[in-house]
Amino acid sequence: MQAIYNILRAIRIHQWTKNFIVFIPLLASHKLTDPARLSESILAFVSFCFTASAAYIINDLHDLAADRQHPQKSKRPIASGKLSKTFAFGLLVLLLAGVLVINLLWTNINFCFWLLCYFLLSNAYSFFFKKRLLADVFVLAALYTLRIFAGGAAEGVAISQWLMMFSLFFFLSVAFTKRFTELYTQRSTDQKSLPGRGYLPPDFEILRVVGPANGYLAILVLALYVNSPDVQLLYKTPNLLWLLCPLLGYWITRIWFIANRGHLHHDPVAFALTDFKSYLTALCCAIVVIAASFKLWPL
After folding, report:
1. pTM of the predicted model, to two decimals?
2. CA 201, CA 10: separation in Å to the nearest integer?
3. What is the C-alpha separation between 224 and 295, in angstroms, rounded?
């Protein structure tokens, strides 16, 4: 059982939740009930899970020295020695083989293009961009956004400029949160910089500003979308969507409050998965979107 647990940790199975992003184009276009498109979304989800896990293993093998100096990452299965490098490499080959089989049988060329872009950019991040100031967070945001483009390609749904801009700013805020929490942890040690990163202690205050700012820019894009003619095409009571702005503002602000107090996990996604208020906020957003899809007089 311990071996299985270490394998699941090595492939970062909890990170698979990020790949639900591929369903966003289907949800945004109100085509979730289309069985054919939904099945293609599921194939895209599985492909991204395997690809992302393969990229995580490559990253862990490449960053062994830096991870062993990190207070939390040193506990990862490969860095701690609980999984050997040989076993990790075999696991990597198995994951990539699974992705290859799925996509050979599926033969969606457009999706394969975006999946390949994700895999290449993910590895470019591990080998190069991760150590570059600011470039790292922009690449992280791009990796999130690529999932949306891949989902749209898998489902045959066009990605709107509204969704693209919202995703960019929102995921930039998430990426800045990740670096902020890492730098916060580093401040309690004697290290002068983050191992394997391009950030220094004086950058802490800048991250504290630009992180929330990008989150609020995402809210601004959402507000502009709600006020645009495009929203009238998909929602019968679009005015209800204004409620999404304070809900999203609450979640972003709260995450940054928690990060600023040093209580946030170094990965904000991992924190959100164990946070009741994050689930509650997501539920409220879902209720608002569903309600806006119906005609509710006099709104």
Report:
1. 0.85
2. 30
3. 21
